[in-house]
Amino acid sequence: MKCDRRRFLKLTASSAACLSLAQLGVSLTPIKSYAAGLKIDGAKEILTVCPFCSVSCFAIGYVKNGKLINVEGDPDYPINEGSLCAKGAAMFTMTTSHHRVQKPMYRAPYSDKWEEKSWDWMIDRIARRVKDTRDKEFIPKNKAGQNVNRLESMFLMGTSHASNEECALTHQFARGLGVVHMDHQARVCHSSTVAALGESFGRGAMTNHWIDIKNADSILIMGSNAAEHHPISFKWVLRAKDKGATVMHVDPKFSRTSARSDFHVPLRSGTDIAFLGGMIKYIIENKKYFNDYVVEYTNASLIVGKDFDFKDGLFSGYDPKKRSYDKDKWALELDSKGIPKRDKSLKHPRCVFQLLKKHYSRYSLDKVSATTGVPEETLLRVFKAYTATGTGKKAGTILYALGWTQHTVGVQNIRTSGIIQLLLGNIGIAGGGINALRGEPNVQGSTDHALLYHILPGYMAMPNADWSSYEKYNKANTPVSNDPQSANWWQHKPEYFASLLKSWFGENATKDNGFCYELLPKVEKGEDYSYLFMFDRMFRGEITGGFFMGLNPMNSVPNTNKIRRAMDNLDWVVCAELHNSETTDNWHRPGSDPKKIKTEFFLLPSAHRLEKSGSVTNSGRWLLWHGQAVPPQFEARPFAEMYIPIMNKLRELYAKESGTFPDPILKLDWPEKYDPEDLCQRINGRFTRDVVIKGKKYLKGQQVPSFVSLSDDGSTSSLNWLYCGSWTEEEGNKCLRRDPKQTPMQEKIGLYPNWSWCWPVNRRILYNRASVDLNGKPFNPAKAVIEWKDGKWIGDVPDGGWPPMSTGKGRYPFIMQQHGLGHIFGPGRQDGPFPEHYEPVETPVKSNMFSKQLNSPVYKFTKSAPDLLAKAADPKFPIVLTTYSLTEHWCGGGETRNVPNLLEAEPQLYVEMSPELAKEKGIKNGEVIIVESIRGKVEAVAMVTVRMRPLKVHGRIIHEIGMPYCFGWTTPGSGDSTNRLTPSVGDPNTTIPEYKACCVNIRKAKKVTELATP
Q: What is the pLDDT, as a whole number, of residue 1006?
């Protein structure tokens, strides 16, 4: 009998010892008999995707007699190979949990109880609330008299738990209403990733993919605890290590990642740029850079204009009153044809390379050591090990997560790593890249579909008030390059934008009327509508109502005491959740009086991943289809089946009653019912009329084969140009592909081109034209990604199909950049073209060793009364606090705390501290302590451990403590959110909050009940 992997796993699942018993001569007949009677015997297998981190492991749901009876990992999926982490293994329990929200629940204003209501009643009431708010508070013109057609007093906080199809609907729903306060989890977890990687390379996505990590010769894990927070990803780190790769973990805390690394380097949280800046200096001084790569594929040789300067911690063009830079001062010098001037010798004093060298000449080992707390010899050990990859024959990869992103310099943390990887030639190659370990199930897809206020699907800019027409929008957002060797791919943006508008407004959108551009809301230029500022406006009573769909901001937003009070000012709010959370139940939190809280709550029961079908996109950009194992349990619904009837009711009301500016709602091309397959096809895009492209005829309604066929004449529609090609007439839904077929070249590096589909155009390693020389030959033939052979590219899908550069018909490899080159000098960010070390906003030191500027001069902050900040080196708050996730809990813990076995494994809030700090404070392991910042305090259990170490910084000992942030008051006995301590400050590029470095103090609790209620 043939025994494939799945049959083998089923058989051996009955006894972990069956093979060894057989080897001992023990009869396995009874065990085989037992295996035949396993509960999954005869069950229907439904493939789904784990609903937690963005490794997006495949799982099998077993359904028998219409009921889900078990969930286990899919052994055929090439990424997780049958493995699941603790959270993934708990999927079955989570789906069947009695803690779930089972029916639509309503809380009337000033009431002290929930009431059960029907779905029809809830839909009607919500639609009426939305219409009344919109009719009363819609803003047709701004103070300058410009048409803006926006609604500022209503918000929509979406979710990375939604499928791509649901995300596409969410965005269309919000923009149809005129909502500008739209955001989701990506804003507070990885928004800095998109801004940093986009500036560096052209796209804001993980450059490689999970399996490719095994190809690395050196792995730098910094700002991540991959082994615990992305456990399945770490198997690929260990595969690389087994083949001889050096693994380094740079992180304030010793963890399971540290234990499996070659060495661990503790550093003070918030000093990553100092550490990496020292590495840049080491690379340049010791000529560790890959010269050919740097000269040909990066902007190191480009000449910067004479206006650029850097002095005393500030770049040229700084306006202290506006707290912003004039980025025109950072412009490149152009020749008479409008092409950037170059010096390939890298000797011109104003070429990027020389400016880089000058900028980081200040980052000496002694200053880096004194700032980070890392001894000089340890710094050199890391620098030597990692920079050995800059030869073209080796590969180094960088793995990071929220430890880098959640800072007021979060974007520049990642930009610094981008500079290092470009200097070493590690971008575009197998085993290289910068791999963002995203922590949510569809955070890549939900960001691609832009559940964010500042962009449209496919990373196109949100219209602002100055772009009053379709033509002005395109002119302002379509870059021009005069260099014939630059692909300048964003020149095609008008085709993608027109196709998006055709998808949103259907036949109503024509070229003559600017594809209904006037119906879109326009944000105010320079205005911030993200989490921090939205909640600040809510605190001031400027927000009327809105939607929290699958997220728990009352636990996961900084300065949580303020956020919870802000929510009391809402007239109404809609929440969609699997479980009651700190957000859904904010009206009766400890210390509050429901009779004084006016907010009308609508709680909608949400379907679990196993209860709906659709596609998600993992961090490596693979599109994966999850099947519906069972119908939604109880009275739960998918998010899409909430949005669609609410909008349909609104359309009915506006058709009947009219109201303020009804056109955007009535002219939407909006589905009557939710069909995920139809939505998936709409995301890909369809032809809106018969056309002929390159001699081939396509009929109206057929799928567009690739984004190169999208047009700006109205003949195509697409809800997201990046996904065009994912569902074609020839192959259908490519998310469903499960073919492990590979060429020998692809097999060598673990490329699976026929398994699922990957944006863009199924390319698995971005910027892969940088992995070959000017003749198209791989720098490292042993790990070739692509190669020019017999007049064509083989291997991966090349990042641009042109022939090699040496033919005279080639293009630079970074095709999404205006000038086609990787950005060592990045003039598009708000805080400078080179990363510079600035202290966190709350810091235990009084000075910056690298300049006179202590903090980022352009960091963002809110100004309401509770937004307090500790002064630098405040003796009241001398300890650095950093926060982190846990293996057993997901993000704020709103779901996983409702799974008994996960809660049992990690039951309550704790504080990790060094024995030295514990001795200083008179605290013993297991004692209840108070952790306090200037904004609030929390109660937690002391965990005295050598995993946290004192650090010598600025000549004295500074202590750092670590706390998870996944606990909340709705779980009795677990403690409350650590985010009651963190500040309302953010990165100037994306407003991601600074969760990872604030200042606190600790003391032993006098009694367990001492903690003040929120």
A: 87
User: Up-side HSE of residue 993: CA atoms within 13 Å toward CB?
Assistant: 24
β-bridge partners, 733:
727
CA 196/CA 988 separation, integer angstroms: 12
Please return the burial class of 167, using the count of CB atoms within 10 Å of its CB with bins 0-12, 13-18 and 19+: buried
Classify strands 622-626 and 757-758 as parallel, antiparallel or unpaired. Answer: antiparallel
Interatomic CA distance for residues 163 and 166, integer angstroms: 5
Residue 289 burial (CB count, 10 A): 23
CA neighbor of 784 nearest in space, from 751, 817, 742, 824: 751
Q: What phi and psi, each to the nearest 5 degrees, are found at residue 574? A: -110, 130
In the block, residue with structure tokens 């005393």: 312
Q: Read off the pTM.
A: 0.95
DSSP helix/strand/coil, 265: strand
Q: How far apart are CA 719 and CA 682, in angstroms?
A: 6
Question: Which residues, other chains included, contact 492 with Cβ-Cβ below 8 Å and sequence gap of 6+?
Answer: 707, 710
3-class DSSP state of 645:
helix
- Token pair listed for 610: 């196993």
Strands 757-758 and 792-795: unpaired
Cα separation, 936 vs 932, in Å, equals 6
- Are 218 and 237 within 8 A, CB to CB? no
pLDDT at 28 over 90: no
H-helix segments, 42-178: 86-89, 91-96, 119-137, 164-177
Q: DSSP for 977-997?
A: -GGGSS-SEE-TTT--B--S-
Q: Is the pLDDT of residue 403 over 80?
A: yes
Phi-psi region of 200 (alpha: psi -120 to 50; beta: other; left: phi over 0): alpha
The single-letter DSSP state of residue 39 is T
Q: Is residue 612 a contact partner of residue 642, using CB atoms and an 8 Å limit?
A: no
Q: What backbone phi and psi angles, to 5 degrees, belong to 776?
A: 85, 15
Please check the confidence at residue 1 and state whether its pLDDT lies above 50.
no
What is the spatial distance between Cα 535 and Cα 586, in angstroms, rounded to a whole number? 14
Which sign does the torsion angle of CA 491, 493, 499, 501 carry? negative
Q: What is the mean pLDDT of the chain?
A: 95
Amino acid letter for position 71: V
Residue 178's region, left for phi above 0, alpha for psi from -120 to 50, else beta, is: left
pLDDT at 26 over 90: no
* Bridge partners (DSSP) listed for residue 944: 913
- If you ran DSSP here, which 8-state letter would residue 883 be given? E
Q: Quick count: other Cβ atoms within 10 Å of Cβ 466?
A: 13
**Spatial CA neighbour of 508 closest among 497, 496, 516:** 516
Using CA atoms, how far apart are residues 59 and 88, in angstroms rounded to an integer? Answer: 8
**Could you tell me where the DSSP H helices lie in 514-578?**
531-539, 553-556, 560-567
User: Which residue, 371, 347, 355, 272, is CA-closest to 309?
Assistant: 355
Distance CA 443, CA 450 (A): 10
Task: Check residue 42 and give left, alpha or beta (phi > 0: left; psi -120 to 50: alpha).
Answer: left
- Token readout for 308 is 């650029």
What is the CA 125 to chain-centroid distance, rounded?
A: 34
Alpha helices in 689-826 (DSSP H): 744-749
CA distance 134 to 128: 10
* 778 cis-preceded (ω within 30 degrees of 0): no
